[in-house]
Amino acid sequence: MLNWLIEPLSFEFMRGALVTAILLGVLCAVVGTYLIVQRMGLLGDVIAHAVLPGLAIAFFLGIDIFLGAFISGTLSTFVIGWIQSQSRIKVDAAMALVFSGFLALGIMLITLLKSKLDLHEFLFGDILGVTTDDVKRTVIITVIVLLLVKLFYKELLFYTFDPLGAQASGLPINLIHFGLTGAITLTIIASMQTVGVVLVVSLLIGPGITAYLLVKELHQMMQLGAIIGVISSVTGMYISYYLNVPSGAAIVLVVSVIFLLALFFSPTQGIFTRPEMIDRRARLLSQLKFQNPK
What we know:
By secondary structure, the protein is an all-alpha fold. The chain contains 13 helices and no strands. The termini are far apart.
């Protein structure tokens, strides 16, 4: 058993991949918690696909592709807000339109600019190909985002659960919204090489909604979600190594399995274990015993 755990660590690429996976397991869980409590899970999916035009343009111009991804992802949220403010269109419809529009624009730009950008890598990830610079970038993004969440936790908590009250109390809600958008975009950029833009939303949302079924407080969701994210990431990496399957898919499948376990067996909200279900089964058993006495 010990050899089974140690063997992957003998390879430098696996050590880098595991460090990156652990960092992203924490980062995605913390940032994703805010998406969950605001019922804006689709926004993560929109931003994840909206980075594609920025990647294509930045690659063509020879600048940092992650800078292009950040600008493009952030721009998509402003477009959503603009559509919502200028029309009667609901936010979910605006997000769906921006999602498909930015994705189509990205694919078109890659074709027209004859870009040699590895689209498959960004769509599905390649964590085993992370470099030292990639690890450093992930560390920097993780530290910055977690530090800001720690410093402004009370303000973020107020804004998340009562945006109108936060505005009335004088909090800069536009700045807070922009900060959350920036954190989400940075998290997605950091996660692209791990699970790719197709699967990144699962890593953003999965650990958080699993924790939501088990605890009640926001900070507890973040903490438990981070633990679940780390366990899922590391387990997925080992599955990928020993079964020779895509690492991103393996990580997301582990996240999904843990969520299903919580959905079925959560002490308070589990389908099989919540109090009303236990009471119903107890009444049913008592009726059966009454109808069929021994």
